[in-house]
Amino acid sequence: KAMRKKIVAGNWKMNMDYNEGLALFSEVINMVKDEATGSQQVVVCSPFIHLHSLAQLGKGYANIAIGAQNAHQNESGAFTGEISAKMIKSVGAVYVILGHSERRQYFGETNELLAKKTDTALANDLKPIFCIGETLQEREANTHFDVIKTQLAEGLFHLDETAFGKVVIAYEPVWAIGTGVTATSAQAQEIHAFIRAEIAAKYSQELADATTILYGGSCNPKNAAELFAQTDIDGGLIGGASLKSRDFTDIVKAFN
Ligand code: PEP
Hints:
- Homodimer.
- By secondary structure, the chain is an alpha/beta fold.
- It is 43% helix and 15% strand.
- It has one domain (6-253): TIM Barrel (Alpha-Beta Barrel), CATH 3.20.20.70.
- The chain is built from 12 helices and 8 strands.
- α1 (18-32) links the parallel β1 and β2 (40-45).
- α1 runs parallel beside α2 (48-58) and α5 (111-123) crosses α7 (144-155).
- The longest helix has 18 residues, at 185-202.
- It starts with 5 loop residues before the first strand and ends with a helix.
- It binds phosphoenolpyruvate.
- Residues 11, 172, 177-178, 216-219, 237-241 line the site of phosphoenolpyruvate (PEP).
């Protein structure tokens, strides 16, 4: 675990106008700049509108990076209203969330589409934070391992080793997102270990051991330390709690 990059990433979703976002990020920088050191990284995934300014504000802090929450699968062209990976990269973002359950649910994103988005993001030197996770019905039907296996196989396992090595995975059980219901640390650890085993079987143990796997779903300052202490949990993807600088910073500190 010590060898893997540890990440706490905030996902602001469709919140914060431009000025609110800049103010929040300034607070976060001041509060985490001395915390995120060594192999630990803080990532803020904002709406597209904020990316350029946040990247400027974050310049010079090696352990603070900016990410987008989505990118189009095509390089460029007649896709009115869409944003390309190249554009995101060009304003200084380093990461892009792909396959968030809200994109899968409300925008019909499939594993097949997400495989294309992953390729395009990587071709433009963006690191995907690739989200996977089962719904409540899938867990109750005891199909959660199959769902995870399929999402990995169809969304990511077409990549070669070098490309896969640039991907961060986020396990986000859909029933835990924005609900206040967190997976227990044992439930999360069980899936994280399963994901790592799938990577080992597909690629190698070495690559599996080097892959950062985040937990997401109602992570907060109270439960973060226990989640992050699990063997295969390398950090978190934080929704609601990333909108409050104090809560977000406390989650970052939960590593220590
Ligand atoms: C998310 O949407 O990625 C997420 C984890 O949300 P929340 O922390 O609000 O459950």
